[in-house]
Amino acid sequence: MKGIGVSPGISIGKAFVLKKAEAINSGVLLTNEAEISQEITRFDRAVSQAVDDIETIKSATQPSLRDDDLAILDAQIELLTDPQLKADIIEKIVSDRKNSADALIEVIKSFVQLFEGMDDEYMRARSADIKDIGDRILSHLGATVNSSPQNFEPNTIIIAEDISPSETITMDISHVIGFATQAGSKTSHTAIIAKSKSIPAVVGCGDQLGTVMNDEIIILDGVSGLVYINPEQGIIDEYMVKKEAYHQLADKLKALKNQAAVTTDGKKITLSANIAEADDMMEVFEYGGEGVGLFRTELLFMNRDSFPTEDEQFEFYKKVALRSKGAPVIVRTIDIGGDKHLPYFDLPAELNPFLGYRAIRICLDRKELFITQLKAILRASVFGGLKIMFPMISNVQEIRAAKEILAEAKAELLNEGIAFNTDIKAGIMIEIPSAAVMADILAKEVDFFSIGTNDLCQYTLAVDRMNEKVSHLYDPFNPGVLRLISNVIEQGHKNHIHVGMCGEMASDPLATLLLLGMGLDDLSMSATAIPAIKNIIINHSITETKEIYKNVMHMDNSEDIIAYLEGRAQ
Amino acid sequence: MTTNDYIILASQGIHARPATVLIRLVKNFKSAVSLKRGDKIVRLNSMLNILSLAIKGGESITVIVEGEDEVEAAQAVGLFFTEQLKEL
Q1: Tens digit of pLDDT for each residue in B49-87?
Q2: Torsion angle, CA of A10/A13/A14/A18, rounded to 10 degrees?
């Protein structure tokens, strides 16, 4: 079974199924005014008892209560005493003659539906809080029972449909080693609590999880989101080994989060992350990323019926800018074509799509699309440290044309009186061999280079990675590829512009020392890869990496190079 | 009556935590404080109503204050949106 892994780690333990009693609408109607005022009084009393509950939890758990938990409890008090909630319930008691419990059930249900229907994931997750406070008041009206036990046996994995905020705080989870829930998302309480307590958790497993019974053996992988129910011994053994390895590595890497990536001889290396949307930003900082070396903008253009408008794009980029807290973010203009197609943008089939109509080639041809995106990025640039990067540059004319359109976009915004960062930096991806060879020429035109090793490797070696018959030839350690990369770094630095790398090679531990030796000081990769690369950097010196680089450049084939690098990595 | 426009400086928008702080802040004043986003207006005393606006980071909202201590109330709410919200 597969859900969403929201808190990393591996757990092997016994299931405890958390069941919730569902309140039932009694359908009783009130017959006279006396009953009506009595029900209103009962409701008020139940609310104040519910508030007392929360106050008790607050004082009983302090001072161990974390800030976040305290905020959840305070928010619950505000929800319990919400004037709108009270007004709606009194309306139902008075006008519809419902008793207080029925009125509450109906009002809560309609608020839950309202929040579940919102397009914001965070707000959708708040429906659980509303349900939770409803249940709490109901329990004081004698209409439902709260059954969460206070103590669990050691090595318990909690299985539930969903876990309510107050349950996550009041449960004694000292013996709980994992959570798996049917519902939920990355922002649900189970996820937040599990993460803050470093307990592996998987949410959104679906109905199948409902078949689990108490004491069944569960394996839970909070990274991949996999959940096994009563697995075979072989799988258990396999996961025992994985768990041990995970813990050792996690301990080591966790210690590095706030440590700067500085070599033993004092050179600072910048480690950034590649992202696709604003929600990725949290992970970037969590793994110690210092910014974004590649923000792919394609996600916004996919899964829809038409091109996003300037305003829609602006919102998308602004969200990233706001969450980046001033850290640099390199926004790559759209890279469609090749293997990435849009349902509403008809690109004729091509014989060689990777050598065809894609990325900057489309943008320069369809200027109206390009200028819309550039204006949106410029507008968002006042909210954070955005930079613009053009992909698939093969000659100097393309850079000049792109910059001309960028200037037009700026002029239009000036005319419209809309603010943007007038000093925004513009750079290019180096992923076509011609660009790498003439890096000395291109460096005079732009503010920065970013080496995209995936395409650079594919184009330099004339290898289609997807074609299994030739994929073994795809080899970033091919001396030809290494010479190109080295040239880009050297020429970039000679011309005093910034050079980074955002391809897969940047996250390959085998390549790190070699790249440092070439003089590269900015690597961007998926956030989760950052700690491992940092661990390499802080344990070696630049002097050492220069020697490695020199030796590698004397080797004539990648087998020798890889074997040598493996030896040095030991 | 005083009205002021603010841009939401917290990237996550007005979620439960800032809403709690805001409601408690407003309770200190006698004036009626309302929040307007687009064509929707809600009183700043209901968590459910505030959250149901789903106000996101970067959006602009209008605060309307009316009552005997409206100058002080508007000032306090203004400080919340321009300074405190960033730290929540």
Answers
A1: 999 998 988 889 999 999 999 999 999 999 999 988 877
A2: -30
CB contact under 8 A, A85 and B56: no
B54 and A79: CB-CB below 8 Å?
no
Q: What pLDDT score was predicted for residue A130? A: 92
Closest CA to A136 of A43, A212, A46, A265: A46
Determine the Cα–Cα distance for residues A200 and A223; give it in Å rounded to an integer.
8
CB contact under 8 A, B24 and A126: no
Q: How many Å apart are CA A392 and CA A18, to the nearest integer?
A: 53
For residue A313, the model assigns a pLDDT of 96
ipTM: 0.89
Q: Degrees (nearest 5) of the Cα angle A17, A23, A24?
A: 130
Kindly report the CATH number that applies to the domain delimited by A252-266+430-518+526-570.
Answer: 3.20.20.60
> Residue A21 has what pLDDT?
62
Q: Which of A161, A88, A170, A166 is nearest to A133 (CA)?
A: A166
- Residue B34 above 60 pLDDT? yes
A64 vs B16: CA distance, rounded Å: 22
Query: Could B47 and A75 be called an inter-chain contact, meaning their C-beta atoms sit closer than 8 Å?
Result: yes
Q: What is the pLDDT of residue A206?
A: 87
The predicted structure's pLDDT at residue A520: 96
Task: Please give the CATH topology (third level) of the domain spanning A21-140.
Answer: Enzyme I; Chain A, domain 2 (1.10.274)
Q: Which residue of B lies nearest to A69 if distances are taken between CA atoms?
A: B17
Chain B, nearest residue to A87 by Cα: B46
Q: Which domain holds residue B6?
A: 2-87
- CATH 3.20.20.60 domain span(s) along chain A: 252-266+430-518+526-570, 270-424
Of B17, B51, B57, the CB nearest to A322: B57
Residues of A with CB under 8 A from a CB of B: 71-72, 74-75, 78-79, 82-85, 111, 114-115, 118-120, 122-123, 126, 129-130, 278, 315, 318-319, 322-323, 383
CB contact under 8 A, B45 and A83: yes
With a cut of 70, list the residues of chain A below it in pLDDT.
21-23, 62-65, 143-150, 166, 169-170, 187, 196, 466, 570
Task: Tell me the pTM.
Answer: 0.59
pLDDT in tens, A119-129: 888 888 888 88
All CATH 3.50.30.10 domain ranges of chain A, comma separated, are: 1-20+147-235
Query: How far from A279 is each of A233, A276, A323, CA to CA, in Å?
Result: 38, 8, 9
* pLDDT for A64: 66
Instruction: Give pLDDT, residue A65.
Output: 66
> Cβ contacts (< 8 Å) between B24 and chain A: which residues?
78
Candidate from B16, B20, B48 with C-beta closest to A84:
B48
Query: Quick one: closest CA in B to A71, which residue?
Result: B17
DSSP string, B56-73: PTT-EEEEEEESTTHHHH
Q: What is the pLDDT of residue B33?
A: 94
- Which residues in B have their CB inside 8 Å of a CB on A? 11-13, 15-17, 19-20, 23-24, 43, 45-49, 51-52, 54, 56-58
What CATH class is the domain A1-20+147-235?
Answer: alpha beta
Q: Please give the single-letter amino acid code of residue A436.
A: A
* Number of domains chain B contains: 1
Between chain A and chain B, the number of residue pairs with CB atoms below 8 A apart is 58
Cα A103 from Cα A113, distance rounded (Å): 16
Are B54 and A123 inside 8 Å of each other by CB? Answer: yes
CATH of domain A270-424: 3.20.20.60
Do B47 and A120 make contact, defined as CB atoms within 8 angstroms?
no
CATH number, domain containing residue B50: 3.30.1340.10
